[in-house]
Amino acid sequence: MQLILDSKTWAEQVVKSLTLEEKISLLSGADVWRTTPIPRVGIPALKTTDGPVGVRGSTVTDGTTAALTPSAVSLAATFDTDIVEGIGHLLATEVEDKKADVLLAPTVCLHRSPLGGRNFESFSGDDPFLGGKLAAAYIRAIQSHGIATSIKHFVANDQETRRFILNQHIPERALREMHLVPFQIAIREANPWTLMTSYSKINGTYASNNKRLLQGILRDEWGYDGLVISDWFGTNSIVPSLEAGMDLEMPGPARKRGQKLLDAVRLGHLKERTIEKSAKRVLELVYKTGKHNYPHWIEEPEEAINRLEHQEFLRMAAADGIVLLKNTNNLLPLRLESGLQVAFIGPNSRASVAAGGGSANLNPHYRTTPYDSFVENANIFAPGAVTVKHAVGCLSNKWIPLVPENCVSPVNGEHGLLMELFGNTTLSGVAAASSHRKTSMLTCYDNIPKSFGPGKRYSYRATGVITPKTSGNHTFSLGSCGPSRMLVDGVEIISLWGRTKDSERSELFMAYASPEQRFDMRMEAGKPYTLVVEGISREMDPIPVEYFAELYREEVMDGARVGFMEEVQTDLLGDAVQLARESDVVVMVVGKNVEWESEAYDMKSMDLPGEQNKLISEVLKANPNTIIVNQSGSPIAMPWIDQASTVLQAWYQGQELGNAMFDVLTGLVNPNGKLPVTFPKRLEDTPTYHNFPGENDQVFYGEGIWLGYRHYDKAHIEPLFPFGFGLSYTTFEYSNVRVSSPIFSPHRDVTVSVDVTNTGYLYGKESVQFYVSQISKPGLPRPVRELKGFAKVALQPGETKTAQYKLDKHALGYFNEKLKKWVVDENAEFEVFAAANSRDLRGSAIFSIMNGMQWIK
Ligand code: BGC
């Protein structure tokens, strides 16, 4: 028997036994989530699944439930690689539950603007070093289980507006020092087995065709040998993408590859060798995931296992991401004294605002809300002591909510709708498939019969029975990708039947659908109404066979979004103010949600949606003992900040959001999160104010390297809260900042250390940040200082510990575009600061470079 030593040798051998057709088949998926198997030679399919904050499995909507972790921005706020590693191990178990092999995560692109729709999903915040280090911890943990990760989206996927056709003009230095860095660090330190390209064009060429990035930088310079995957439907050519080294077109079946590649080879447009290279990389992944040991592998059904140890870990991880921004009156931590009356107010206070929207969203094993968890936990920790009441205060929904519990399927009486799919455009004949839909987000994607796609049109009908709880003027809504209409008791109330492929779009339904149409109708409490929605999938252009052209065809989801809301017949604001007045303390949970912050579109403003700012002001006036808790993945404007004594930034905390909030509010957990992104006073102060989201599908990265805190520091702009900021219920003193050597040489790294003492009365954790600043004159202008290390220490009152970080050569250089190299200036001198945040420097030490000029690869 032959001994196979490694993935390369194995792939090398297997590829030799394949026909050209088989090799080509490996270069596109088989379906939405799986690669193509070759049973003849025992190559099984690999199953991919989204990421990054849970493992959704193979159904986007209404699939099996999964653990929902805090959003990446919250994990970044922990500044804690141990927590991120723990999340990685937890997710690996969940990937196993979903019988998958590749987790499509982590997301690491920078938060370029506070308006970025996907900011919440990324580990990087303002700083590529932070993102890179955390991503490396995440990848290492997951891959230690034999499960692949897919770092994404390469590169600079920091805007959603027009993402499929956008051209990003990024100066080389900004690319090198900012946008590529999280990928570079993660690849250097953790070697993700796969990498996903972004949708847009980078400097004129689609990321999936970008030879300079994929071959030049990624493979030739960095030596990356993993598999490069397109983002879903983001393969933008037939030949150039493969020649650029974009190995795998996802999803399948093939759109730009398959027969088209076969013809390209036969016509001499493409060398078989090029096909072979990419096919080998797919095979290597089969080997790395251990799947080569299961040549006849049959996929088992997905499982949804809600583990107690995961719940506990997620509660801790979520609490550690919460950032205390203000506590001037020491209102926090709350003491649950007998007779205390607490009011929970705000649109998010009794809702489970657990994640941002888009592919990172999923159906959690369970949901918690701030109010409900507070009540539950207060009963455990201080039984009978406190009274907790709730008032919503105002609405913050962007669209009419999905159909509530009182809409049921006519077949099984369960919450949701009956969905029937027809293999024609006329809703005729017997349905090809029918299923129960738990939500009225009627997605047609990975859940439609195989015979329907790709490019074939079909139709659908959803039926539900709504029994309103109140009598009133209630609102129905509909938005759809293709033509659709809505009927209530047989009467058409909304028609989008005239939609064509060129009709107007909105942000609805991942930005693939029409604007939302609404219809108000007088309805009686307790009376059942039959709701029917009929629709046709949208028409799509054929994909032209142009072997060398950049091809774009959008084709993602189809379906419709159906909403229903009963008329609001109370004075929401008045009731909330009244409750605030009657309470000892108010916890106001405000923020954005899955509709405002999502993949597929950006935000229009930093303002809290709806009447939330007004609500906050009024409640603060009624009761100054108000704690404001904001849930968002990006900075928000806080026009009431001077009025408020107490503010927490709680991000999106996944399934444990309510419990984590209770822990921080009551001091069970001493807050220790720090902002991974600058909170500006106003949008006008931000580095990309003039250059986001661009115009005419062009966006210029005019800010260059001056992104995030680098911009605020250089321009002397006072942020609302600086990068790295976060308070605690205790206090920390820093002393004795020192370096292990005053001279840095290629053979002697410099370790920076600082002693941190807990000078307060409570146990707490502190994220110490190390910023490096070049004090000798640099060859090119450099940021005032840059984060190059961080360390977290946990301290009992009175205890002192040393926080330290080993600085390597990557902490020192900058990219010189003229020389096309990373350089460190001759005899450069540096100051390294130990800091509580980017503006709170607690001491520094100096070191310099030995041996003249150093070049960094
Ligand atoms: C997203 C990716 C995701 C993929 C598969 C795309 O829309 O950009 O991040 O992994 O879909 O769901």
From TrEMBL:
A Pfam family it matches: Glyco_hydro_3
Pathway of action: Glycan metabolism; cellulose degradation
GO biological process per UniProt: cellulose catabolic process
Catalytic reactions of this protein: Hydrolysis of terminal, non-reducing beta-D-glucosyl residues with release of beta-D-glucose
InterPro entries given in the database record: Cellulose_deg_GH3, Fn3-like, GH, Glyco_hydro_3_AS, Glyco_hydro_3_C, Glyco_hydro_3_C_sf, Glyco_hydro_3_N, Glyco_hydro_3_N_sf
Keyword Hydrolase part of the UniProt annotation: yes
Family classification: Belongs to the glycosyl hydrolase 3 family.
Protein name listed in UniProt: beta-glucosidase
